[in-house]
Amino acid sequence: MRVGLYPGTFDPITLGHIDIIRRATSLVDRLVIGVAINRDKGPLFRLEERVAMIEAECAKLIEQTQTEIVVHPFENLLIDCAADVGAQMIIRGLRAVADFEYEYQMVGMNRQLNDEIETVFLMAEATHQAIASKLVKEIARLDGDVSKFVTPQVNEALITKLSR
């Protein structure tokens, strides 16, 4: 069974993330969405909220692709998480050259830690290349319309969260 790990903070999950998840399902039999518990980033959404949003969005993809998709929070090293879930590959989305420079460094370090786990890069679709969760949150905080970047359910969650 081919198992892939797609890690991120997903704060919140965007259409760009969903595009990468959908495309990754064609590469694996089981896709683990690794939700990073990164206290240093100070996420807008609590871990439980992020997990619930991802599960809701992935339910549709499971039906469409017939691929097993599970959500797995983690706080350890990415390469250790990949080993923990039995992943043979880590799936990363790329938007721009700047992403590649950072990811290139990460791959080198991960290969030193465990050379049995490959990293696979998927380029974001052109319509999703500018989408970043950080920018989505900033636009939403300033009462901008983020409906082009997230699903209606995530948009509603942002509005609700930021109106408190």
UniProtKB/TrEMBL annotation:
Task: Report the EC number(s), separated by commas if there are several.
Answer: 2.7.7.3
Where is the protein situated, by its record's location annotation? Cytoplasm
Please give the catalytic activity noted in the UniProt record. Answer: (R)-4'-phosphopantetheine + ATP + H(+) = 3'-dephospho-CoA + diphosphate
Q: Which InterPro entries match?
A: Cyt_trans-like, PPAT, Rossmann-like_a/b/a_fold
Q: Name one GO cellular component term.
A: cytoplasm
Has UniProt tagged this entry with the keyword Glycoprotein?
A: no
Q: Which residues form the signal peptide?
A: none
Q: Where is the Cytidyltransferase-like domain?
A: 5-138
Q: Which family does it belong to?
A: Belongs to the bacterial CoaD family.
Q: What is this protein called?
A: Phosphopantetheine adenylyltransferase
Q: Which organism is it from?
A: Pseudosulfitobacter pseudonitzschiae
